[in-house]
Description:
The complex is a heterodimer.
Chain A: E1 3-6, E2 10-13, E3 18-22, H1 34-42, E4 50-56, E5 64-70, E6 76-80
Antiparallel strand pairs in A: 1-2, 3-4, 4-5, 5-6
Chain B: H1 2-7, E1 24-33, E2 36-42, H2 46-52, E3 59-60, E4 67-68, E5 81-84, E6 91-95, E7 105-109, H3 123-126, H4 145-155, E8 169-182, H5 186-197, E9 202-205, H6 221-232, E10 236-238, E11 241-247, E12 251-257, E13 271-285, E14 289-291, E15 304-306, H7 307-317, E16 324-329, H8 333-343, E17 347-353, E18 368-370, E19 372-378, E20 385-390, E21 402-405, E22 408-412, E23 415-417, H9 420-424, E24 429-432, E25 437-440, E26 447-449, H10 459-475, E27 504-506, E28 511-512, H11 513-521, H12 527-534, H13 547-558, H14 562-565, H15 579-583, E29 595-596, H16 600-605, E30 609-613, E31 616-621, H17 629-642, E32 645-648, E33 653-658, H18 662-669, E34 682-688, E35 694-704, E36 707-712, H19 717-731, E37 738-741, E38 746-752, H20 756-762, E39 779-784, E40 787-792, E41 801-807, H21 811-825, E42 828-829, H22 832-841, E43 890-897, E44 909-910, E45 921-929, E46 934-942, E47 951-956, E48 959-966
Parallel strand pairs in B: 1-7, 8-9, 8-13, 9-10, 13-26, 15-22, 16-17, 16-22, 17-18, 29-31, 32-42
Antiparallel strand pairs in B: 1-2, 3-4, 5-6, 5-7, 11-12, 12-13, 14-23, 19-20, 20-21, 24-25, 27-28, 30-31, 32-38, 33-36, 33-37, 34-35, 35-36, 38-41, 39-40, 40-41, 43-46, 43-48, 44-45, 44-47, 45-46, 47-48
Helix pairs in contact in B: 5-6, 5-10, 7-8, 11-12, 11-13, 17-22, 20-21
Amino acid sequence: MMQLPCPWCGVRDETEFVCGGTTHLARPGLEASDAEWGHYLFFRDNPKGVHLERWRHSFGCGAWFNLARHTVTHEVLAVYGMTEAPPCSGAA
Amino acid sequence: MLGRSVGRLMGSARLAAPAGAWIDRSRSVSFTFNGRSLSGFRGDTLASALLANGVRLVGRSFKLHRPRGIWSCGLEEPSALVDVGAGARRTPNVRTTLLPLEDGLVAQSVNCWPGVGFDLGAVTGAFAPLLPAGFYYKTFKWPNWHWFEPAIRRMAGLGQAPTAADADHYEEVAAQTDVLVVGAGVAGLTAAVAAARAGARTMLLARGAQLGGALGWCADPAVSALTQQAGELGVEVHTRTLAFGVYDHNLVCACESLAPEGALDLPACVLRERLWKIRARSVIAAAGAFERPLVFPDNDRPGVMLAGAAMKYAGAFGVACGQRMVIAANSDGAYAAARSLAAAGLEIVAIVDRREGSPAAEGARFRVLTQATLTAVAGTRALRGCTVAHLAAGNVPAAGGERLACDLVLNAGGYAPAVHLHSQAGGRLRWLPESAMFVPDGPAPGVVSVGACAGVFAREAAVSHAAAVGEALARGHTPPAAPVDGGGRSDALTYVAGVPGKQFVDLQNDVTAQDVELAGRESYRSVEHLKRYTTTGMGTDQGKTSNINALILMAGYTGQAPAEVGTTRFRPPFAPVTLGAIAGRRVGELYRPLKRLPAQAWHAAHGARFETFGDWRRPAAYPLPGESLGQAAQREAAMVRARAGLFDGSPLGKLEVFGPDAARFLDHMYVGTMSTLAIGQARYGVLLNENGTLVDDGIVARLSAQHYWVNTTTAGAERTAAAFEEWLQCEFVDFKVLVTPVTSCWSNVTVAGPRAWQWLAACGFDAALAPVTMKHMTLRESAWEGLPLRVLRASFSGELGYEVNLPVDHAEALFTRLWKRAPEFGAVLYGIEALQVMRIEKGYLHIGTDTDGTTLPGDVGFARGIERKLVNFVGRRSLSRPAARDAQRPQLVGLKSVDGRTLLAVGAQIAARPAPTLAEGRVTSSCVSPELGCPVALALLNGGSERLGERVRVHHLAAITEAQVVKTPFVDPAGERVNG
């Protein structure tokens, strides 16, 4: 059980949060092809390394925020707001 | 010899004081083993008491049912497992070596019938050549595996599980600390004291009841001094607490034993175990090392034990495991064991050292054979002797050999550091070839090892390193590297070539060296495959005294170095943990707490039959005396349609959506358009996920320009609120909208039926709410008895309906008032079952029942007008995919059985031909219609919208029913009744 740093409430146990998956997704518009839309719906990168993802502090303040987490060591490298740019690259 | 005569007590295996540091000879304890009454002392474990009573045969091995005795003196015990207690307090597979002796303890051997002495299962031993590793992958296939399955299931496993619910109580506690030390041997104590002295908040966990680890019974002055200092410095010490796993971000889980297994009935307020979840800034692993036994023929016989165990039984419990012993040696520890046991008055027949010789042998006053090994063991139930021979090249012993009479053979094969916590935390290992052991290769993230588990066996070096580590971690500095010494030289491979007899590697799962060789021969190369194929290390002891020998053998058979073979992955728990401790208080009613209606007591008092619907306890119906649930539902539905009915709809989800962009936001979420609602107007809406699938529905009403009242399904209340938040916070970040879930703030009292308004008016409701002024699908704010109301004219029943939302605490008052006037209107109470009957009659769908994870709005008739909507609502793009436009998609239709009598079963498949065949649909909802007097159903049918009038065949179990595809609603097709 990890500990995650909610930007509003501070460090809390993972069980207080819900994971929203990969963040900074670019949603294609209505003009996207079926392939582009399907790729957006069903394909995600699964990096062995830093992953940019979003979490909600569901059993706390209810805020969504972004997190950079190393998928192997679970080290949390950065936490930043939903509308902010990532402070580090999310490359695998 | 003086020592000998002082040591032995007449007629028993007990040694006189000072042996037995942990037992209280003044307090006798009675217990029962396999029906036999025996006694021991307070402070004994079951194992020490059995040994003291001369009990050598304790169990039968898993596969081959070989007689087994007590092997160890700790949690690594593979053989001496018993079932303890009876009924709800029966605990299977308890290690006798850890179980504290209590008065009245009842224990019995496992895996043997009728008894451990005469076990019918032993016949499998005769078939041993047919039962090598992995035999079950190659057998029991013809003619049919299921013929053999029942017999094999009975034979599988060791103990017997209890058949009643666990009667004990457990709890969970969370803790935080700066430095957590796991293990209270001299290294662990030193580290804890050093950390506390340097100012860290320090916690120390010890599995046993006493501190001191491997020195815990030796009256070691350093241990006493450290224990006292720990107390003075405020170290939080927890004994009987086994740390079983380290998890993400330095979370260590431990299980504290507060009362032993099988103890007599505990009062209800007393806990059996407590689960600790400890978040530590730094963890120091001081878990010690296990002994590594030697591999030689028949090394599993009762009377073959670990050397350290014999020392501990003598020193801590005052028990002689045997009177005349041979020590099979592969490490210097053999000599220390010999000296210690001789001082207790026992006879050392010989030390049979595999190695070429050792400085530790100097001055030893026993017979020492070097470069020699055991080649045979005599005595299947009680050791009688062994045969030893000198080793020539290639592990092959010389012919013949010398027979030695003895009643105990001790393994002093070397050590295996307990690297489990280090490895669980992601630490790496390196192989010490000289000592044939894996040691931590530097610290793990968050976990630093000290003492024997770090490969530091020399006492002074271990203590000074532990002190430096404790202080460094307390101050946040880098700890120094461990001065690894490996405990001296040990040969890796001890297998004896060219002699008959089974040479066991894993005692619990009956895995022999021959089995490991078979795995190599069958081309298994990975140590993970070796483990699963042979099952070595997969028992309750998880290979603590066998894994290293197994990988050394595998290395030999596959031509690799042990470091290349490596270890299997270490996973928690380190030792068995009861499920009760993990469940804690989340059992019974607390396992899945259910939600209850605000007016629950009122409903119960008025004859409600409650059932669980999702997370809620709700009235399914209000049966009259003698009525079944189904009959009640039919009556209630009929009365609602004829007169009026009263229903508690409080669990329905309610959201307040407020803000300048509220209208725009709802247009982006719903398929329909909510921004065009006039104030006071309401509209039914459906929500999709991005895949276009229907996920929720409900009525949306407009309270003001910027304020909406949104209903969701009962099951979807929290999920839909969360979805709204996600879209607002993550995607529509510029929208100024607040979403507030208010489901638990408002009660929903629903009045439905032709007489609904007259009834409400008689109870004091404002005339402005009458049907002439308040139309269907509108919402009015109103008041009743000074309470604010939000009244919605909506209907899931298809009749004139009022959903009266009022503050939650006042629902009972309204129910009471309405019910008082009910007889004048012939009104009834109705529950969920009647509501389902009515909504099926109207063809109203239920998300999740009449839809599934693939159902699109067009499949259920909700796609009309989508093209005209401009906004890109959630899921819109998925509605224009080719699959979404396939005319053969499953579509919701009505079904009526042709015979007018047969009730179609929910889930029944629709297919033209009998099975096996592809289905073309299924029945999703079904009931008897009281209004029509015949069964009606809803179904998803491929291309259903084009198949009205067609006859289809509905399959259920062995029967096929003909049904006709019809339009819905079945009742009141024009939908006039809602107008009142």
